[in-house]
Write a structure and sequence with these properties.
heterodimer, A: 156 residues, alpha/beta, Udp-n-acetylmuramoylalanyl-d-glutamate--2,6- Diaminopimelate Ligase, Chain: A, domain 1, 6-stranded mixed beta sheet, two-stranded antiparallel ribbon, 7 helices, globular, disordered N terminus, B: 147 residues, alpha+beta, Heat Shock Protein 90, 5-stranded antiparallel beta sheet, 5 helices
């Protein structure tokens, strides 16, 4: 029989298979630790191995840094296919704690060193942006609240 | 109160953002509210990227008084032929290389207008562009005045 999918179980039910009870509780309280993010995405940790206990409460996907600068209103995790110094600077301006480079992208060593100095956690993932976002959503992470000029919106 | 002047070079993508990073640090050190500093940093970064991407090089100035934080960005050209068009969301003259870097989406000027309290842009083709971006400082924006 096909399982009935109830929205209220969304955060907890599915991740039970991948995460422990303690981790599940954390998701239900809102957010994932970066350690969990790395685990769910099977990511390579490029910087910030010692900062993986930090929690992110929301995420967004974009390859356009101006969109990120325009719409992201809180400390969020950013999934992006752009891996250059400008992205690290964007993270610094917005106090984004973690960048996830999708499609196996990784910045050059100088850029990685800059991120390390600024305390930005960098992860590299061998998955598409769509699949990465889907896995994080499935694990309980939700969209960063956004507002844009012509249309009012909240991302969930 | 601080009055800083910074040079921004044309096409210097490797250092693009370093001026804004400095400005952000400076404002935080002055004890200005983090949310306001974030708004200034967004405007500053967009203005700085504009100088790097579109101008022949220019300068940025940060001016802080008790009443306001003012950012000025001005360049040596080439100037904007249609300012109203340039301010529209989604309009951009940036090329593919800029877009591949994650910029040039036509969001820069609208972003600056959105996060600032007052934004003036004046430009003349062949001469240059001047932006004055102002953020009103209220007493509660100083960390020391917070309860």
């Amino acid at each position: 029989m096909r399982p009935v999918f109830k929205p209220e179980q969304h955060g907890s039910a599915i991740i039970n298979s991948a995460l422990s009870d303690a981790q599940t509780t954390q998701v239900m309280l809102g957010g994932l630790s970066l350690h969990q993010v790395a685990q769910v995405l099977d990511a390579e940790v490029l910087t910030g191995e010692d900062q993986l206990d930090q929690t992110v409460k929301s995420a967004c996907c974009s390859d356009l840094m101006s969109d990120v600068l325009a719409f992201v209103h809180e400390r969020a995790l950013l999934l992006t296919g752009i891996a250059n110094a400008n992205v690290i600077r964007t993270a610094q301006m917005l106090d984004l704690g973690c960048l996830v480079f999708v499609r196996g992208k990784r910045p050059d060593e100088a850029t990685i060193a800059m991120a390390r100095e600024l305390g930005v956690v960098l992860l590299s993932v061998n998955k598409t942006m769509f699949v990465s976002a889907g896995l994080l959503y499935q694990a309980g992470l939700r969209g960063s609240p956004m507002k844009w000029s012509s249309r009012e919106g909240g991302a969930q | 109160m601080p009055h800083d002047v910074y040079l921004v070079d044309q096409g210097d993508y490797a250092n693009a953002g370093s001026v804004s990073a400095h400005i952000k640090k400076r404002l935080l050190a002055l004890g200005i509210d983090k949310a306001l500093v974030r708004r200034v940093a967004i405007a500053s970064f967009e203005a700085e990227m504009n100088l790097v991407i579109h101008s022949f090089g220019g300068k940025m100035e940060l001016d802080v008084t008790d009443a306001a934080i003012t950012l000025e960005a001005y360049d040596k050209g080439p100037g904007i032929s249609n300012v109203e068009l340039a301010k529209m969301e989604g309009f951009s003259t940036a090329d593919e290389e800029v877009r591949s870097r994650g910029f040039g989406a036509g969001m820069g000027l609208p972003n600056i207008a959105r996060v600032s309290d007052h934004f003036v842009l004046a430009s003349r083709p062949g001469v240059g562009t001047l932006m004055v971006i102002t953020f009103t400082l209220h007493p509660e924006h100083k960390e020391e005045n917070k309860a």
